[in-house]
Design brief:
This protein is 32% helix and 21% strand. The mean pLDDT is 94. The chain is built from 14 helices and 19 strands. The strands form four sheets. A seven-stranded antiparallel beta sheet has the order 16-13-15-14-18-19-17, with helices on both faces. The two termini are 30 Å apart. The protein folds into three domains: 75 residues, 2-Layer Sandwich (Uridine Diphospho-n-acetylenolpyruvylglucosamine Reductase, domain 2); 157 residues, 2-Layer Sandwich (Uridine Diphospho-n-acetylenolpyruvylglucosamine Reductase, domain 3), CATH 3.30.465; 204 residues, Vanillyl-alcohol Oxidase, Chain A, domain 3, CATH 3.40.462. The protein is α+β, with helices and mostly antiparallel strands and 498 residues long. Bound molecules: flavin-adenine dinucleotide.
Amino acid sequence: MLIQTQPDQIQSFLSDSSYVQGGHAERVVFPKDAKEAAEVLEAATREHNPVTVSGAGTGTVGGRVPFGGIILATDKLDHIKRIVREDAGGLAVAEAGVILSDLQQAVNSEGLLYPPDPTERGCFLGGNVATNASGSRTFKYGPTRNYVQRLTIALAGGDVIDLHRGELFAAADGRIRIPLSNGREIEAQLPSYSMPRLRKHASGYFVAPGMDIIDLFIGSEGTLGVVIEVEVKLLPKPEGLLSGVVFFASEEKLLTFVSEARERSLHSRQTSVAEDIDARALEFFDSQSLGFLRQRYETIPSAAVGAIFFEQETTPAREEALMNGWLSLLEEHDALAELSWFATNEPDQARLREFRHQLPVLMNEWFARHNQRKVSTDMSVPDKEFSGMLRFYEETLQADELRYTIFGHIGDNHVHVNILPRNDDEGARAREIYVQFLKRAAAVGGTLSAEHGVGKLKREYLQIFHSEQHLREMAALKRAFDPAGILGRGNIFAEEYL
Ligand SMILES: Cc1cc2nc3c(=O)[nH]c(=O)nc-3n(C[C@H](O)[C@H](O)[C@H](O)COP(=O)(O)OP(=O)(O)OC[C@H]3O[C@@H](n4cnc5c(N)ncnc54)[C@H](O)[C@@H]3O)c2cc1C
């Protein structure tokens, strides 16, 4: 097994897209299969040596940033093992270190679709499972969880388990039992909280009455086990796609447009009548975001104060009717339709997706350049609370004269507010405002993180959403899988809980 110990070899594994500073580790190990990973974990448990699992490092909350011990890199677990076509879709089996864009391309060339699509496609499949990654298409297709059928996981004690969806469930009282190959079993108790009723939620362990135990590992941020291999469900590739970046001169009109597009899309899906519009993505850019993007895209209309990126799947027979459906909806809500951008072929669609991708990239560059700790929200709230929440964000930030952008997955009531402090004073104020936002989200039934997870960056804020008892219950659950507390130390909750 490849092991690297030189500082210049380790360096690139000490950070991620959160810019959490101070990461350090004694070595990086690169297992090639479950057995090698299990051996590393068994020895680390014996020695009480922390292990941080590393994917591609695109995570935004410091989850893979190590503070001591060993880095277990999944880079050598990089095989797509098979892609199988079935009647309605198919399945893919791939190792944890497969790059998402490679999997998507391979699946696409078989005429199939793997829906999860976090904006940053350089991430690894294992990282996606560990964070239950979402993305723009989550509005129609849900998060990574909805596609995971089987996981091979190496546990801290050196056991390897294979969990198939539909085989192992929690008991009604929340007890779970997982048999191990040596005849023993792991027994644990699920935490007592219930999940918020939201379209998206990615903070803390997933729990539900009688849940499938595979779901516990999805979104567990490298704290319960190392994902080695994943089987995912695939869908048939849509025949065609219509996408657009549509601009508005009034944010109020933009919001009514989104509400109607969402309602009609949900209705189309519930009734399975493919007559009306059915967005698979509804993504928001506020006026400050457009200001940033104008640096690279001069053709953004000067009158625009907001924009929506949408995607709609089509068939050749229905493309025109759907295009007309979107155009009349845009007209009804006074969009700047003439100045908006539409794409019906792959190269143009890739350009619109790139436009969407540029914004988080620009934000990350900004934080790095100004050497400021990132203040970036990831909350989602229930449908009826969204417009009030957006107003609260804007009024609070404008009253403080802080620079900011708001963008993201508006179809799921989930936008990212990036506060951009220009100096340390503004940085401190930005963090205070972030706490105000979190308290408001908690008060209206929202979540700390809808998709990026808690990691190390946001763990102190989980207390706003969970009682001390809930945090202790999460830690007790982790100890059942990882008695020495070696895995993903400091992710989700502070080490003192272990
Ligand atoms: C520009 C940009 C845009 C983004 N947009 C989105 C978006 O739209 N939606 C979204 O959901 N995310 C988004 N992200 C966040 C990120 O891409 C996802 O969180 C992704 O799933 C992380 O995968 P990774 O391989 O990079 O994981 P890493 O960053 O390496 O690790 C993330 C966490 O998972 C753990 N982990 C990694 N691999 C494993 C494994 N095999 N077993 C167990 N634990 C593991 C790590 O320990 C860590 O806690 C974005 C990031 C960037 C930089």
